[in-house]
């Protein structure tokens, strides 16, 4: 049986709301008739309150409702979260403080190099980490073969990253690539034999 993957807040809220409504319905049957009329109002207004709070959060802080894997380009996630700008501003503030403290010293620290190095490391993760992630997963599941799309969803990697990692691992001879003989269409599968 496939696992249900809860990967966004709206799914979480709907599951919670459905469970609350289910339990409320069961509890409603067990309550004495004089309390049932009050409880019905709770059962009606609780989901409305929950959805209203969700939309208020969505309106005021919508960027926090998305995971990096929800973006095709991870750069857009960094922009939405304002991570690069925050890091850049923090380095600039620290630079200003340090320049004031060390105004009499002859040697100045090159803050611009530090800033560009940190921002570059935020923007790009080394491809070797993606390879390790893919290879580790395939090692744990020796004898099983996966499509690139399946691995993408399992490992939360973007399509270009998963394809690049799979190609590099195949070139190194660490994994196998083949077509599914049982499929009528050409489907590439990746994996490690037992």
Contiguous runs where pLDDT drops below 50 for at least 5 residues: none
| General form | flat
Number of helices: 8
What is the mean predicted local confidence, pLDDT?
Answer: 78
Q: What is the N-to-C order of secondary-structure elements (H for helix, E for strand)?
A: HHHHHHEHHEE
Q: Report Rg.
A: 26 Å
Widest sheet: strand order? Answer: 1-3-2
Structural class by SSE content: mainly alpha
Helical content stands at: 55-70%
- The fraction of residues in strands falls at 5-15%
- Tell how many strands the DSSP assignment holds: 3
Description:
The chain is built from 8 helices and 3 strands. With about 190 residues, it is mainly α. It is flat, with a radius of gyration of 26 Å. The mean pLDDT is about 80.
Descriptive key words:
194 residues; mainly alpha; three-stranded antiparallel beta sheet; 8 helices; 64% helix; 5% strand; WH_DNA-bd_sf; membrane; transmembrane; transmembrane helix; WH-like_DNA-bd_sf
Strand-helix topology:
Layout: H1 9-30, H2 33-60, H3 74-81, H4 83-101, H5 111-123, H6 127-140, E1 145-146, H7 148-155, H8 159-171, E2 176-179, E3 188-191
Antiparallel strand pairs: 1-3, 2-3
Task: Give a quick precis of the structure.
The chain is mainly alpha-helical. Helix content is 64%, strand content 5%.
């Amino acid at each position: 049986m496939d696992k249900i993957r809860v990967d966004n807040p709206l799914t979480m809220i709907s599951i919670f709301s459905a469970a609350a409504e289910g339990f409320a319905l069961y509890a409603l049957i067990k309550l004495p008739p004089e309390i049932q009329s009050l409880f019905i109002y709770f059962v009606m207004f609780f989901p409305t309150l929950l959805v209203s709070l969700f939309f208020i959060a969505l309106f005021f802080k919508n960027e926090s409702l998305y995971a990096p894997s929800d973006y095709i380009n991870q750069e857009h996630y960094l922009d939405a979260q304002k991570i690069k700008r925050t890091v850049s501003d923090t380095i600039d503030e620290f630079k200003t403080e340090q320049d004031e403290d060390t105004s009499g010293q002859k040697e100045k620290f090159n803050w611009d190099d530090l800033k560009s190095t940190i921002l570059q490391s935020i923007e790009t993760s080394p491809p070797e980490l993606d390879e390790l992630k893919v290879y580790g997963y395939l090692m744990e599941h020796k004898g099983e073969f996966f499509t690139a799309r399946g691995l993408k969803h399992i490992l939360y990697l973007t399509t270009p990253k998963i394809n690049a990692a799979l190609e590099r691992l195949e070139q190194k001879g660490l994994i196998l690539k083949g077509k599914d003989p049982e499929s009528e269409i050409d489907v590439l599968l990746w994996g490690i034999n037992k």
